[in-house]
Specification:
The protein has about 400 residues and is an all-alpha fold. The chain contains 18 helices and no strands. Helix 4 packs antiparallel against helix 16, helix 6 packs antiparallel against helix 16 and helix 7 packs antiparallel against helix 12.
């Protein structure tokens, strides 16, 4: 069966349903503010923040190297998509229950449980993402993709705005750890409802790339790198620009260590980040037919480079509101452009393979938080911020070379 306009429309709205309720869930489990703040309040150190950030942002993508060869051998990927999202749902429920009953658990055990449950959550997301990318590429017509990305951002932006205000309220209702328990309970409920959208998807177009074993997988990667010149520049791009979304957890650590920020401040930081995300989402929605991913990447790189300067140039307490506002812009612009560029450089049959290659090539974003945590512990924040700026600056070369036309 071929993809028809009616099926494409059904899938379009099913994916939007998921995106909307996922937006509600994301606020209450935000990887840049809520989760690192929770770990710091639980007694976590700079190195532990680095490890957790690496798991959430880099390591989860790297595991796509393992998932992609397995999933690629199947014509239809919906069952794997559902398995991935259900593992995330139950990990959120586990986090909520663990924090709610934290008085019965030792501090060291809490930190261990946080790592275990966040690992399940992150790796489950990576497992689902391999299938999601394949299903999105073949279940929504190409003419509707850019509209989908833009409309998705507007809908999620509106929901993010209101849920951020609610999250700010929930954080102040009680002290740690009960306030975070409430946050994860709400995230669990929202993600559970979001999963209904995936259940409603109609996957009609089969796609398969037979991969016999890991050696065969690496041979395919080598072949694709030779045949597709843009792929190597795309890998260079995600290994440089990809670290831009790993900065904010360390800013949370910086604010707590030097300015002793509280849960109310964390709620405000989250709110400012959401405002930035919503703002750029609306702008890109109205410019959906005119903007190019290339210029979006250039703008994101420039903003990411200037972000540490707000800390360097501040003689007193930095304007964390501006930092998180810009961080929200970078986060949204990066994900919109990366999704679009990945679909452009890949094809229907090899899209799962390319998702796996992207994960395999996501080495620096996986290692940077670990290195960052060690640098901060040994030398302080300034060398860490300078290294961040140098890597972001190098991303401009890859943006230029990839020369994305759309």
């Amino acid at each position: 069966m071929k993809l028809s306009p009616n099926i494409s429309k059904r899938n379009f709205y099913s994916l939007l349903w998921h995106a909307g309720f996922l937006a509600l869930a994301q606020v209450f489990m935000d990887v840049d503010t809520i989760i690192p703040a929770m770990l710091v309040d639980a007694g976590g150190s700079a190195v532990q923040i680095g490890i957790l950030t690496a798991i959430m942002l880099g390591g989860s993508s790297f595991t796509q190297l393992i998932y992609a060869p397995f999933i690629s051998n199947y014509h239809f990927k919906k069952k794997f998509l559902l398995l991935g999202i259900n593992s995330r749902i139950f990990s959120l429920l586990g986090l909520g229950l663990m924090l709610f009953f934290a008085s019965f658990i030792g501090e060291s055990n809490i930190i261990w449980l946080i790592f275990i449950l966040i690992t399940i959550f992150s790796f489950g997301g990576a497992f689902a993402n391999v299938s999601y990318t394949d299903i999105l590429g073949k279940s929504v017509m190409q003419s509707s993709r850019k509209s989908f990305f833009s409309i998705r951002q507007v809908i999620t932006g509106i929901l993010l705005f209101f849920s951020a205000m609610l999250a700010k309220k929930v954080l102040t209702l009680s002290a740690y750890p009960t306030n975070y328990a409430y946050m994860f309970f709400i995230a669990f409920g929202a993600l559970f409802i979001a999963s209904f959208g995936f259940w409603n998807i109609k996957e009609v177009t089969p796609s398969q790339m037979a991969i016999k074993n890991p050696t065969h997988f690496f041979q395919l990667i080598k072949t694709e790198l030779k045949q597709n010149k843009k792929l190597k520049y795309f890998l260079g791009l995600i290994n440089t620009m990809g670290i831009s979304i790993s900065l904010l957890p360390f800013v949370i650590l910086y604010s707590k260590e030097f300015y002793h920020t509280e849960s109310t401040d964390t709620g405000l930081f989250l709110f400012y980040k959401i405002i930035g995300s919503v703002a750029v989402g609306f702008i890109l929605f109205f410019l959906a037919g005119r903007y190019k991913y290339r210029y979006l990447l250039y703008g994101s790189a420039v903003l990411a480079f200037t972000l540490p300067m707000f800390i360097f140039l501040s003689s007193e307490m930095p304007s964390f509101g501006i930092i998180f506002f810009i961080g929200g812009i970078i986060f949204t612009a990066y994900y919109i452009s990366m999704n679009g560029v990945l679909l452009e450089v890949s094809g229907t049959e090899n899209r799962t393979l390319y998702t796996g290659i992207t994960g395999a090539g996501n080495i620096l974003p996986a290692l940077f938080p670990l290195l960052g945590g060690w640098i901060i512990k040994q030398f302080g924040f300034q060398p860490f911020f300078m290294l961040f700026m140098a890597i972001i600056l190098s991303s401009l070369f890859f943006i230029y070379k990839i020369n994305c036309k759309k």
